[in-house]
Structure prediction request, 194 residues.
Amino acid sequence: MARRNRMPPWHEHVRLANGRDILIRPIRPEDAGPMQAAFTLLEPDEIRQRFLHPMKELSAQQAEQLTRPDPRRNFALVAAEPLPPGEALVGAVARISLDANGKDAEFAILVSHYVNGMGLGRHLMRRLVRWAKGRKVQRIYGDVLESNLPMQALAASLGFRREPTPETGLVRMVLDLPPPKPKLPPSPPLAAGA
Prediction:
């Protein structure tokens, strides 16, 4: 019998439009170093669009916080080379965090220009939405720079709507999730000859 190559939950191999193979998987503490190294390869505008302000580096403390999400409230995925964590260059990060009310969750996605425009942001966003649905989240939102039209277009194409924010220069992209369908009890079997 052939042995199946099963992947752990939330792990998947993806081939990008340029033919590059990547592994999408949950973020790991070992990713802190490669994320700091990859941060220097990002363009200033990429950093500003994700963090909403300029940054010159990702500090060790920030990398540590990003790579150790609280599994009860946060979920984070990376798109990386198919190498062990700690060795793989990370090309994209997507995270979602539950608000204190447990009904709303905030998303954030950063896709490096090296792998941008290949559907990776859409793929990662769909995974975040799937995680949120599993947690019975009612609303997903993310604050986006008004100038970040690609992120707004991506979110809108997935059903997000645009809302104003009190902060100048930002818009909030919001997705309302339908409540889970109630599970129906199984139907009784039909009697023979009925």
